[in-house]
Amino acid sequence: MPNILGLNFIAGQRSAVGPQRLQSLDATTGEALPYNFAQATEGEVDRAARAAAGAFGEFRQLSPARRAEFLDAIAAELDELDDSFVAIVCRETALPAARIQGERGRTSGQMRLFAQVLRRGDFLGARIDLAQPERQPLPRVDIRQMRIGVGPVAVFGASNFPLAFSTAGGDTAAALAAGCPVVFKAHSGHMATADLVACAILRAAERTGMPKGVFNMVFGGGVGEWLVKHPAIQAVGFTGSLKGGDALCRMAAARAQPIPVFAEMSSINPVIILPAALARRGETIARELAGSVCLGAGQFCTNPGMLIGLQSPGFSQLLNDLGQHLDQQAGQTLLNAGGLRSYVAGLEHLHAHAGIQHLAGQAQQGDQARAQLFKADVRLLLESDPLLQEEVFGPATVAVEVSDLEQLRAALLGLRGQLTATLIGEPEDLEAFAWLVPLLEEKVGRILVNGYPTGVEVCDAMVHGGPYPATSDARGTSVGTLAIDRFLRPVCYQNYPQALLPEALRDGNPLGLRRLVNGQWSEGVI
């Protein structure tokens, strides 16, 4: 059995000041696991934030290659965690071993991907405008720009991805790549998992000679507010509920020095089923949709929570087929008891609404989530009924039938911001409904064609973000290499001597970067 101390991580050391202990639970049975954790005190949160601030100056000035070494070392440590680690994650989350093993690969892969970003150097955004002493009516001095880390970042662990969106997840990887030390708030649903992953990060930090305080982690309730309000923290990464994200945004905005919160919060991810596709492969679409709705017990932020189609016998048949598939689904254990309570409450609200009809799904009872299909009157979208805009986090989806193209347009305009929107169509559909794309571009961060939104590739081009309430800042993404942008800011160097310039901006181009020089991209020396 792994040695889990259950103490807070501060400046490379372990700490437990207060007497309160927090218990890790088996997600399936609810029984106590043999691990408990120290509730962080406000003083410990203060020390953790100050440790991150103390490490910032040294860490951000390390070469990109040195920081890449650190990220690669974290990835190697994660890959070396054995089957006993996987077993603990499974017990804390009720997720199967294959899912955890796959997620661990994604997590170490994210670290290696950001290491590649560091080595290629484009994240620095180097721009150089050379002096023009002869310019009239006034000469121009030498002006150069690059980006640096914003400072210590507070990261909140997500419940639904105990590895890929948690301790060593995408926000942590992006912040560390940007040169920003991290203070991580462990999620209460998988504290033992967080402890073991944090130990792996610290081993990597020691192996690569990183400054003490480059990574810190605290356990417990109430610590999030202390973190966000701490003057040393300069940005926040969060994945969770709309209520939680909104609260953090308000706290951050009310500080003496406001800071950005990059929160991924709520999305119902509409799937629009177009007529020719419905006619030719409606049965297949119904089966595929059922698989996407129920994947991981519906506990994905990209779960397809709404289906939209034009009124027709074909759409009615698709809903009938989909309902049969969902009726046959076995109950699934959710990540924790709180998640089940939230799911049950969401279903109760849908059942109670006069404009929403329950079409299929076994009666929700017991300690497992049952897949559900509802149908809502389109007027609820047209009138922006808040219930239809709320994410039900679990294996449930709501169908909306529109009467014509004008109503389809109006229904989509009635949607709030989303992470994704999906078009299911044949080539003739996609041509005839091309007018949907500009509309969807204003509503979502990712548009899919003939796929399903569950499953987010980690790559340069991915966008996992979108207009509010999908995220608190639609200009960023929490997945993909563009995620590093959230934790960087530009600095301009005017009329600087060569010897004092950062390496990335020197004439000799010692890092071999692709830079914008006098408006032209160049990889050479100046």
UniProtKB/TrEMBL annotation:
Catalytic activity: 2,5-dioxopentanoate + NADP(+) + H2O = 2-oxoglutarate + NADPH + 2 H(+); 2,5-dioxopentanoate + NAD(+) + H2O = 2-oxoglutarate + NADH + 2 H(+)
MF annotations from Gene Ontology: 2,5-dioxovalerate dehydrogenase (NADP+) activity
Keyword Oxidoreductase in record: yes
InterPro entries per UniProt: Ald_DH/histidinol_DH, Ald_DH_C, Ald_DH_N, Aldehyde_DH_dom, Aldehyde_DH_Superfamily, ALDH_KGSADH
Domain called Aldehyde dehydrogenase: residue spans: 24-455
One Pfam family here: Aldedh
Keywords of this entry: Oxidoreductase
EC number: 1.2.1.26
Family classification: Belongs to the aldehyde dehydrogenase family.
Protein name per its UniProtKB record: 2,5-dioxovalerate dehydrogenase
Organism: Pseudomonas peradeniyensis
